[in-house]
Fold this sequence. Notes:
By secondary structure, the protein is mainly beta. The protein is built from 2 helices and 10 strands, in the order ββααββββββββ. The strands form 3 sheets. It has a 5-stranded mixed beta sheet, with no helix packed on it. A 3-stranded parallel beta sheet has the order 3-5-7, with no helix packed on it. A hairpin with a 3-residue loop joins β1 (3-7) and β2 (11-15). The longest helix is centred in the first third of the chain and has 14 residues, at 22-35.
Amino acid sequence: MPYTTLALGLTLTIPTTGTKNWGPTLLNTTWTKISNHTHTGSGDGAKLGTNSLSDAVITSAKLAANIALTQKAATLTPAGTVQTLNWNEGNIQILDLGSASGDVTLTLSNPQKGAKYRIHVIQAATPRDLIWPANTRWPQGQKPILSQVNDAVDVVELYYDGTDYFGDWDLDYKV
């Protein structure tokens, strides 16, 4: 099986072509070497200690830039016809349309590339619709037609690719 060897103060063996079973090779030759090395260039084989993982090396900002929060934000209740969903508040948002005075125009702020988001929409006694940002894409170009019953819960899921949101939905969850 062909391999590529990288010399980085540590020899790593990585299969490059023609094999279906490269996982054991990667595990036994490459991953073992990476996990048993302090990454100091000394090649001493000592494992990386937990004291090396400080906020100076792996910062909160670096983590936030690579993952979305997996938490539910407080319920949002638009008082008028606009609402901002700030993804920094959590990747699960609840939007109660009961206090909206008309259809609600959404602004989606602070998305992270590659993140998935979920919006739980609670319908009002007077049914309201959502007006989505222009960069929101839907299957066959069809945005969700929200439930028309008071207190019905619809769930909209979005994936952000760094430019556009790609959405899907499930309607009329019973409370």
